[in-house]
Design brief:
Number of helices: 1
Distance between the termini: 46 Å
Strand order of the largest sheet: 1-2-3-5-4
Helix content: 10-25%
Mean pLDDT: 88
Shape: globular
Order of helices and strands: HEEEEE
CATH superfamily: Nucleic acid-binding proteins
Strand content: 35-45%
CATH class: Mainly Beta
Number of strands: 5
Radius of gyration: 18 Å
Largest sheet: 5 strands, mixed, barrel
Length: 103
């Protein structure tokens, strides 16, 4: 309830709130506590030749419950800076990667 009240207060004061950008990527590392590394791939057009090139960006993402694992497809959203390199947080896990069989 506090979040909707804050949005209503901002609207009443004449301020607008922007929608936070979201991205979808694949978890490449989950070694650290409450932090995952997510690789987001995209296509960019070469400025001179016009060919589309695959590019990727790594994001350090806050994972409060340590729920994402390596290979999982996740949705992340921008948030306030949580550390020097971490200003994204995990919204949800879209697809889980198959885990190795425990023996």
């Amino acid at each position: 309830m506090a979040t909707s009240a804050g949005v209503q207060d901002a609207a009443a004061a004449g301020r607008t709130t922007r929608a936070r950008p979201t991205r979808v990527g694949v978890v490449s590392s989950d070694v650290r506590d409450k932090t995952i590394t997510v690789v987001v791939e995209y296509s960019a057009k070469h400025s001179k030749y016009g060919k589309y090139i695959r590019r990727s960006t790594k994001f350090q993402v806050h994972d409060e419950k340590n729920e994402a694992g390596v290979g999982d497809r996740v949705e992340i959203t921008e948030c306030r800076p949580l550390s020097k390199t971490k200003c994204w947080r995990l919204l949800r896990v879209l697809n889980r990667a198959p885990r190795g069989a425990a023996t």
